[in-house]
């Protein structure tokens, strides 16, 4: 059994997989609008949707339990997908697990990130990722993604005889 | 001086101006994904961007103070704009003020809504609205809107000799 430990989430570390949504980033423009009453942290990420409509949805996700054996990953080849904690669970934080790989995820490339309170993420199109990993209970996320999600989903289940990988936090 | 009082925000009452982002709505599909660990409240709203890119940004807005005299409204003719409270202020609630009108807002049509904790909103393209009205301090919002906001902004300042309208909460 191989152990996967979460790394801190920064724009630099997460860049191969997407973008971090937070006000703390220093790599993008920010400017005042509304007569100075609003600071706009502009264009933290761009939605990818390949010409399809972009939807605003809410995901309510319950914990798989931790530690978590990583049995599968999924990806959305035609669009990005963002997760921003909202509501009473906005400050709970969560974990994401990602991997590189063209036709299937390369298990040697698995990485985990801890999404801290106040952060959100946007997975780039085609990035292999585990369904959202909530610490405990349930958590709500605002999700921005491409319409027609059913046609935009690929799942990969790691074969039973491969070395197991477990997320420990 | 005319007084404007906020109404409760429901999908039905807000429909002429956009959509309410919340899990409590009963007028849209919701279904389980991720092996039953996630409930997807699907397509609560659709982003309008007229062929331009869609951006994820964060607005950090401070209060104008309350009660608030409504001196101007703005609209984005080419795209929708969503506001979902995030971070430490996710449960603060806020107020929106909207109006109908083609070339300019009709002051007789002004309405205010109280966006309760756990709710967000998506203004439809072209809807006259006041910049976000925060109760006190500062509040952070995830904003989903069209790229190139400068070309997508119209502002209307109510003439001084018109009857003043004040939002009271």
Question: Can you offer a commentary on this structure?
Answer:
The structure is a homodimer of 169-residue chains. Chain A is mainly β and 169 residues long. Helix content of chain A is 2%, strand content 47%. In chain A, strands 2, 10, 11, 13 and 14 form a five-stranded mixed beta sheet that branches. Chain A has a five-stranded antiparallel beta sheet with strand order 3-12-9-15-6, with no helix packed on it. In chain A, strands 1-17-7 form a three-stranded mixed beta sheet, with no helix packed on it. In chain A, strand 4 and strand 5 form a beta hairpin. The radius of gyration of chain A is 16 Å and the shape is globular. Chain A starts with a strand and ends with a strand. The model of chain A has no long low-confidence stretch (mean pLDDT 96). At the A-B interface, strand 5, strand 6, strand 9 and strand 15 of A face strand 5, strand 6, strand 9 and strand 15 of B.
């Amino acid at each position: 059994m191989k152990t996967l430990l979460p790394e801190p989430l920064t724009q630099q570390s997460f860049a191969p997989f997407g973008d971090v949504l937070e006000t703390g980033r220093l790599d993008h423009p920010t400017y005042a609008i509304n007569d100075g009453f609003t600071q706009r942290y502009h264009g933290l990420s761009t939605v990818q949707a390949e010409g399809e409509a972009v939807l605003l949805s809410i995901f309510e996700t319950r914990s798989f339990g931790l530690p978590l054996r990583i049995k599968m990953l999924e990806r959305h080849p035609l669009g990005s997908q963002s997760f921003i904690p909202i509501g009473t669970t906005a400050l709970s934080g969560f974990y994401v697990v990602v991997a590189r790989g063209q036709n299937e995820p390369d298990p040697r490339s698995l990485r985990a990130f801890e999404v801290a309170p106040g952060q959100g993420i946007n997975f780039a199109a085609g990035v292999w990722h585990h369904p959202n990993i909530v610490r405990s209970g349930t958590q709500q996320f605002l999700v921005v993604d491409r319409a027609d999600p059913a046609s935009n989903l690929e799942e990969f289940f790691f074969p039973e005889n491969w070395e197991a990988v477990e997320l420990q936090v």
